[in-house]
Design a protein that fits this description.
- This protein is of the alpha+beta class.
- It folds into 2 domains: 72 residues, no CATH class; 153 residues, NADH Oxidase (3-Layer(aba) Sandwich).
- The chain is built from 10 helices and 4 strands; from the N terminus they run ααααααβαβαβαβα.
- The longest helix has 20 residues.
- The radius of gyration is 22 Å and the shape is globular.
- The chain binds flavin mononucleotide (FMN).
Length: 290
Amino acid sequence: MRKKLHARLPDKFDDLIAQYRKAISEPFSENVQSNLARLRMNVHIIDKGLHRPDWEFGHSDKCYAEAKKLLVDSSAADRDPTFKWADKVLREYEEAEVNGERSKTPESDFRQQDFVHANDLERFFASRTTCRNFEGRPVLREDLMRIVDAGLQAPSSCCRQTLKVYGSVTPETARDTARCFHGFTGFSDSIPSTMVFCADIRPYGMPGELFYPTFDTALAADHAALMASALGMSMAMLCWIPQKEREERLRTLHNIPEYEAIVVGAVCGYPKQQARKPPRKRVAEALVLN
Ligand SMILES: Cc1cc2nc3c(=O)[nH]c(=O)nc-3n(C[C@H](O)[C@H](O)[C@H](O)COP(=O)(O)O)c2cc1C
């Protein structure tokens, strides 16, 4: 008998957790990406402190010490914008420590007029739908890069930015990728591009942050989907249900390491026909105001 997709299989929890257990038990001191994620986390905490109106001398000492160490250790840091930002924040912190006070609260780079009007944003949200019927028109590599860049603009827990996206604009690889996902049903023959949204799970504090890689990646995927819409495309997400054979196939196809959790997939392309948007429940059903 065919196994039910949503069957409750308590023993499978162990398989799922085993990946996280393995990833966090390995030392990541050698790993540049993990170190950069930890550097961002520590610098973010210091930066957040510097923005506090009640900032006081001596806060974030531990984060400062770890950030300094990671800054030295990260051999690729000078090729990553994290480095410049970390250096600036740490300097401000050092200055404030020497003076016993901040010279001023750090300012934002943005002005009010840079923000999108709420009405425009609402219209835009309403226009995003999940289309599964695509034109054969290829997705340009540059457009996929822009979509992933939008994903990188999303918030992430402690600014860790553990996102990794395995993309394909080659129809054959895109189709093979999509086939690894249970949710790949009801799509057109044409599959112009795919993305596999993953998170490096090593920089998270486990087990308390068990779901954080999923939060972070989901937010990135949402930003990416909105950018795809803005570019006239549609990004249909594909739910990931781990299953041994499919997972091996997907990991082999894109060379996805074990320490990266596969969170969600996506097919992206120009819609042949716009999809009808399912209505949303009312705000009153979602918002409990106390
Ligand atoms: C996490 C997630 C997983 C999804 N997985 C699938 C999937 O496997 N296959 C599919 O056809 N659509 C999938 N979708 C798309 C949803 O069905 C769709 O977003 C929902 O029905 C609302 O429609 P709309 O996006 O057009 O507003 C997924 C969406 C999300 C957020």
